[in-house]
Structure formats: structure tokens, C-alpha cells
Amino acid sequence: MSRAEQIVIGEAPAGWQDVVAVARHGASLALSDAAWARIDNAQAIVQRIVVSGERAYGVNTGLGALCNVSLQGEQLSRLSRNTLLSHACGVGAPLADEQTRAIICAAILNYSQGKSGIHRQVVEALLALLNRGITPQVPAQGSVGYLTHMAHVGIALLGIGQVSYRGQIVPAEQALNEEGLVPVVLGAKDGLCLVNGTPCMTGLSCLAIADAERLSQWADVIGAMSFEALRGQLDAFDASILALKPHPGMQQVGKNLRMLLAGSDVLASSEGIRTQDALSIRSIPQVHGATRDQLAHATRQVEIELNSVTDNPLLLGTPEAFRVVSQANPHGQSVAMAADLLCMAMAELGSIAERRLDRLINPMVSGLPAFLVTQPGVNSGMMIVQYVAASLCAENRQMAQPAVVDNYVTSGLQEDHLSLGTSAALKLHKVLGNTTQILAIEYLLAAQAFEFLKTQGFGVGTGAAWRLLRERIPAYDEDRWLAPDIASSAALIKDETSLERVFQHCRDNSADL
Known about the structure:
By secondary structure, this protein is mostly helical. It contains 21 helices and nine strands. Helix content is about 55%, strand content about 5%. Helix 1 (about 15-25) links the parallel strand 1 and strand 2 (about 30). Helix 9 packs antiparallel against helix 14.
């Protein structure tokens, strides 16, 4: 996707794909006229409150446990600036640029609803960060739900902190100057609007959904290769059998497997060699399908949140007839639970892959040379890569423990139930990274197993996937440095066009089968 593409938000509901287009692929972001009108209306309500002196949380009061401290005049602008400075206290390594961009995009979507009260020029400044390639350096750790991450984004608008710009880390003020931008002067409620809501967990989850969608497809491809290399019994994937347990994800995986394995001479010649396969082989539709169903559920939760109003307080109505409502829409329980659930689902995708690849290297169950190498003994072959996969599975199991059920008390008992949704989304990103590596290892091993079976014909999809990997990685004849091979396999899995090549080959050949 080119940077020339533009995503316009404000009319129809946004999808996770819109966030990914902006955050990962460099599409520009713009708001519709209707969205700008909503933003201006809410800001006019803020100005009416400031003039009237009516107490409204976060507009002319302190924050959190200081909500009963009234402020006025110049204090309101100082409160907004001080909110960003005091809340920008995250620690740890910075987020990846695409992660920060996703967070900013989700925040702008929230403001476009017109219930926040943020000044137009602040939203314009956030759009400029995205569209000019200025990405604040945001420490990954320190959020119990929101606040710190967006505060680090916010201080960049003031010309404070470091940003990623043109491939370098430079002071925010320098990047703004080079783009002809001036630091933003904040008004009443702007600071609270910038740190409030659920854009951190929601934006991060949109990127995670993109990766989970792709990995779910690759898991079917690679799992089918392992199934074929182990001469699995195709009856387990029979459409009429799977239809007796009609989970949608399971049906889709079964369809994919049958398409990928169609025309396999290896499987045709192996029919009846065993009564039933091990569960990690015959239950691919059930396990992969369950992951797909949880992904579908998580996607619904995230997209609802993406199109929700998640500020506190909310400004409703018009300047002539308005309501200011303090509530808890910034609580991210729905997204936190969705991210935790998806974390578990993706960990299971890696777990069953590790069990399959372990069978590939074990001559007692594979019927293939030990560790998939000729001259075992002088060659260790694929022995230790299974250790690596097991280690990654162990890490995933630890991270699959839910973040949302943990809880702490913050802000002097005022904020005494927390979602930990950003933590849930960040560990989901780590699980997705680990699962990518596990599948990359299985891909390597399944392709190597094919080297011992290539006198027979493979399935239309599995054969295409084998040839695709061989374009980058040669067959394994004797021990060599394996780390670069794993990295090349993982890079192939991350390449969105490669997956389409495999499935397109299946579609092109389906009429001939």
C-alpha cells in the first residue's frame, strides 16, 4: 500500500484495516467535514463551561483524586500542559513506530466522534505527526490501561521529548521545525483528552488482528505440509464429518486443508497405513478453527471499541443545551479481555505447531530419517530447532496468563479497578512474534521432510508452499548455520504477498482436480 492512499474517517465506521493501513503501510489520514463539525461543536461546549464557571471534571477541575479542586483562567491551559508532563513517565524500550502510529490513529478516531471537547488544532497536530512521518518515542511500560503512552505522544506536540523522523531519533522540536510546524498551545480539557480513553490497547490490538489473521492462514498451510509429510489420513478432514461439529472456524480450516492437499500422491499412496493419526495431526481443523473463532470474537470487540467514545467526561448536546457526564468509558475491559483471549488462542496455534514439528524429526513416528538429515550422527540436523520452538511455546504459555484479572489501586482510591488492557495488547504482540518463529521452524522442517518424499506428487497448495520456501532457502544436506534459515522463513511468513501466492495457486488449479 502506497503512502499516496488516503483514509478518510468520520462518516462510516472504521475497521481495523484502516488503522493498519495508516500505521503500518503509510496511508495518510484525514477527517471528513462532518467529523470536524462534531469536534468544533464539543469544543464550543468547553468554551461555554469555561465562561460560565460551571464545575465540570477535567475542564475546570483537577484530575483523578484531585477532581474537587476548582481551577480557572490561565490555570486551565497550565493544567493541560502539566497533565502531559506529569503523565509522561513511562519506562522501558520505546514502542515500534507502527505501534505508536496505531495508537495515534485510534485516538483521532475517538476525537472524531465529537464528544471529547479537544481543540481542532490539537487534532490537526496529531494528523500532522502521522502524515509527516513524525513518530514520538513512547516507552512501552507504565500503563495500567491508558495515560502514559498518550502523554508521551502529547508532549511531542509541545516540542518536548524524542521522535523518530526520517530514519533517525531526534528532538521533537527539531522535527517540528523541519516540517514547518509549531508547538501546540493547549487549552481547557486538551491535556485530559490527550491522555484519556482506550486508543493504546485498541490501536495495538488492530495491528495484532492483522498479524493473527495472517498467521492463522499460514498455520493451515504449514500444518497441511506437516500432515502430508507424516502421511496423515485424510478422512479426518472429510467435509461431511467436520459438518457434524459446525463451528465456523473449523469449517474454514477444513476447507483450506482439503484445498491445499488436493491431488497429493503422497496421501493417496498412504491411505490406510494407520487407523488414526496423533491428535496434533488429525485435530488441525478443531484447534486452528477454535483460534479463528476467538479471533473473530476479538475482532468484533476491538472494532466496536474503535468506533466508540472513550473519553471522560463526555460533552453532549450543543453549546446552548449541553450535558457534561462523568462516567467510565475509558475503562478498557472489553478490549483487555479480547486481547487476553486472543493471546491464549495464538499461543495454542504455536503449541500444536510445536507438537507437529517434533513428530517430523522423530524417526519413531515420522518414518523419515532422524532429525531430517542424511548421515545422522555426524550431522545433528534439525534437532535443536525443536528446542527453540519448545522454548518459545513455554514463553507463550507464561504470557497467555490473563492480564485483565490482575488489579491495583491508583490515584488515591479514585481509580480502584483497572483493565490492564495495554499490557494485554503488548503481550499479545510478543506471543504473535513467538508464534511466527514457531511456524517458521515448522515450515523449515516440513519443507525438509518433503525432500525425502519428492519422488511423489504433493498437494497443489503444499507443493506450492514448498517451492516458495525453496526460492529462499536451499535443502538441508549437511549441518549449516540454521539461524539465518529461520529468519528467512519468518520473513516469508511476514510477507503478505507470499501467502496469497500459495492460495492463488490452489484456486488456479482447483478446476483441474
